[in-house]
């Protein structure tokens, strides 16, 4: 059964409320691997002191923190997310910064009584059911001279951290990811990302491509941490497999990681990230 937009958003919000603490601990506060993009995103948007900035889908507030440091005491950052739990973590993570306001808001429907010098959105555009509606809403809330900054994961072939498991597990559980759920790499090529932003009305579009390196350790670390940190609905589906199926799945995943495993058994994944900037 295919998810409609409302059901998808409801499901996604429930998942993020559950995983936000684990995500923040494992990923968001990291400065290695794909989260090297945090610094680069803010640099590409060229945020200045005194700017008013909106951080869309702020998650647990990592981009928000860097933005608040850039705008200084005379600037202001509004951080928006649909996850109540993520917002709570973001507030705590940014408790020393008084130039931030947090709001619980949907990217497709937020509205403010001010326009922003810059809007950022890290690793979230691919989650929005109607990305064009969300982008047009961002455009509407930007100043005429305002700048947009977006980061997304690259194409799945260039982010094997996800593909190594997904390609194997879908052979056992075809609906592992429910129908109607947007793909993480739906904007994983320069062309697809550029087209989506261009048809939303933005101009002066520029895309920077990065390939970061990320090591999850040895295979046992990679597999154990995946099972530990994955969202509850996915854990429940994995639990339906019997012992022999789980072993076969694990062996398939291990085989998929071999091209990225060195002679000491340590995995080193490449991780492609695209960072786009555009003007209103």
State the CATH superfamily name of the domain at 5-156 and 182-213 and 271-279: Vaccinia Virus protein VP39
Main sheet characteristics: 7 strands, mixed
| Cα shape | globular
- Give the beta-strand count: 7
Q: Give the CATH class of the domain at 5-156 and 182-213 and 271-279.
A: Alpha Beta
Task: Count every helix, treating DSSP H or I runs of 4 or more residues as helices.
Answer: 10
The spatial strand order of the largest sheet comes to 3-2-1-4-5-7-6
Q: Overall mean pLDDT score?
A: 91
Share in helix: 40-55%
Radius of gyration: 19 Å
Low-confidence stretches: none
Helix-strand pattern: HHEHEHEEHEHHEHHHE
Outline of the structure:
The chain is of the alpha/beta class and about 280 residues long. The protein has helices at about 5-30, 35-45, 60-70, 85-95, 130-140, 160-170, 190-200, 220-230, 230-240, 245-255, and strands spanning about 50-55, 75-80, 100-105, 115-120, 140-155, 205-220, 265-280. It is globular and about 60 Å long.
Walk me through what this model shows.
A seven-stranded mixed beta sheet has the order 3-2-1-4-5-7-6. With 280 residues, the chain is of the alpha/beta class. The chain has a domain at 5-156 and 182-213 and 271-279: Vaccinia Virus protein VP39 (Rossmann fold, 3-Layer(aba) Sandwich), CATH 3.40.50. It is globular, with a radius of gyration of 19 Å. 41% of the residues lie in helices and 23% in strands.
């Amino acid at each position: 059964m295919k998810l409609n937009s409302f059901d998808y958003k409801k499901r996604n919000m429930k998942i993020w409320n559950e995983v936000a603490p684990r995500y923040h601990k494992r990923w968001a506060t990291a400065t290695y691997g794909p989260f090297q993009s945090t610094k680069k995103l803010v640099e590409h948007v060229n945020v200045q002191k005194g700017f008013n900035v909106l951080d869309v889908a702020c998650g647990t507030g990592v981009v928000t923190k860097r933005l608040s440091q850039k705008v200084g005491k005379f600037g202001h950052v509004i951080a928006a997310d649909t996850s109540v739990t993520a917002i709570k973590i973001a507030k705590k993570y940014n408790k020393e910064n008084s130039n931030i306001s947090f709001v619980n808001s949907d990217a497709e429907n937020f509205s403010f009584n001010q326009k922003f010098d810059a809007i950022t959105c890290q690793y979230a555009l691919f989650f929005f059911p109607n990305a064009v509606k969300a982008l047009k809403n961002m455009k509407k809330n930007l100043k005429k001279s305002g700048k947009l900054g977006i980061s997304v994961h690259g194409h799945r072939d260039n982010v094997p951290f996800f593909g190594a498991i997904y390609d194997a597990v879908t052979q056992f559980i075809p609906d592992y990811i429910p129908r109607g759920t947007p793909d993480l790499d739906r904007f994983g090529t320069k062309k697809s990302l550029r087209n989506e932003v261009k048809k939303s009305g933005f101009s002066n579009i520029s895309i920077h491509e990065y390939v970061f390196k990320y090591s999850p350790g040895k295979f046992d670390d990679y597999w154990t941490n995946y099972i530990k940190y994955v969202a509850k609905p996915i854990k429940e589906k994995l639990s339906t497999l019997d012992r022999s199926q789980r072993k076969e799945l694990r062996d398939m995943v291990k085989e998929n990681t071999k091209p990225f495993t060195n002679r000491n058994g340590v995995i080193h994944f490449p991780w492609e990230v695209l960072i786009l900037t555009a003007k209103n």
